[in-house]
Design a protein that fits this description.
ABC transporter involved in vitamin B12 uptake, BtuC; mainly alpha; 68% helix
């Protein structure tokens, strides 16, 4: 059974790769979601196909050539977006079509079969080598170090670029950094879930974590937990189903489907928690515009006076329907 499989070196390498990939991918995915660039991982994944094909053609390690080409693609799309010569969506579309078409064409020129390319398109985590493991661990550690260590700066740039500029941050440099880290994440995850599904491992855990988290930092922590759990759980589940029913279940799609199941499970709970929060705070801060004082006859107010309650700070005068009021503690008095 699965316990017996865990004794094999290839399964141990696969578990390590799944775990570190599940940790690293959602960290960068959180910043992409914050910047509304959830599909950037897909675009870079398609560009990385060209990098893999170049490696197959030249004889270099496809993983390294994929890193180089994906990073160049990430820099290109950030330059295009910053200069405003075309929209971000159009730039992503160019990456989608050009990267995938170029990869397929170069793979044919290299004399490689489609099955070889499929290992990178849909993942082949059980065939990962020891050198690939060290490569994955090294890049994942870099992503975690930068993504967590620069969390305040990267969040500020992702949330409000104008404020970040006023605060003295180099917005261009940080945007390029996130794009490059996204490209690196794509390449380390391509053997786990495949280039066509890599964006799901970056984004879906973030979407699940957002249902329950109340802060950006909590979202990052929750996304990392969901990502690592889905990666390891999906690998074990695919192995169990394959052995138990004598079928071939790919780990990559199983990992993604398990992450989606986490989102489906957290969404109702998140909706209920948000509903409870609205009941506790029916008047969010800043939702009520300030009222100007006017001269009018005062009268006593109470539950039966017919005027709606307006939230305001204690001991601060306000006017409603032409009457000036002041709130002291938990009751309304004539003021």
């Amino acid at each position: 059974m699965v316990i017996d499989l865990l004794g094999h070196p290839f399964m141990q390498r696969a578990l390590i790769a799944a775990f570190v990939t599940g940790l690293a991918a959602p960290v960068i995915g959180t910043y992409l979601v914050q910047r509304r660039l959830a599909l950037l991982g897909d675009g870079l994944g398609h560009v990385a196909v060209t990098g893999v094909a170049i490696g197959l053609l030249t004889g270099f390690a496809p993983t390294w050539t994929a890193v180089v080409v994906a990073v160049l693609g990430a820099v290109a799309i950030e330059v295009i977006r910053e200069r405003g010569s075309t929209s971000g969506d159009l730039a992503l579309a160019l990456l989608f079509y050009g990267g995938l078409a170029g990869g397929v064409m170069i793979t044919g020129l290299a004399g490689q079969s489609a099955a070889r390319l499929n290992q990178y398109l849909f993942g082949s985590i059980t065939s990962i080598s020891l050198s690939d493991i060290w490569f994955t661990i090294g890049l994942a550690a870099l992503i975690l170090l930068v993504g967590v260590g620069l969390l305040p700066q990267l969040f500020s740039v992702a949330q409000d670029q104008d404020f970040a500029r006023v605060a003295g941050l180099d917005v261009r440099a940080y945007n390029l950094l996130v794009a490059v880290l996204a490209a690196v994440t794509v390449t380390i995850a391509m053997r786990t879930v495949g280039l066509l599904l890599v964006s799901a491992l970056m984004i879906v855990p973030v979407a699940a974590s957002q249902q329950l988290a109340r802060s950006f930092r909590a979202t990052v922590v929750g996304a990392v937990l969901v990502g690592a759990g889905a990666a390891v759980g999906g690998l074990l589940l695919s192995a169990y189903v394959s052995v138990r029913h004598d079928v071939s279940v790919a780990p990559g799609p199983t990992i993604v489907l398990l992450a989606l199941a986490c989102f489906v499970a957290t969404w109702p709970l998140g909706a209920w928690l948000r509903h409870r929060a609205r009941l506790r705070e029916p008047f969010p801060e800043g939702a009520v515009a300030p009222l100007e004082a006017t001269d009018h006859d005062n009268h006593d107010h109470g539950p039966a006076c017919g005027h709606l309650a307006v939230p305001h700070d204690d001991h601060v005068d306000y006017v409603h329907d032409g009457h000036r009021h002041a709130r002291h503690g938990e009751h309304y008095d004539e003021h």
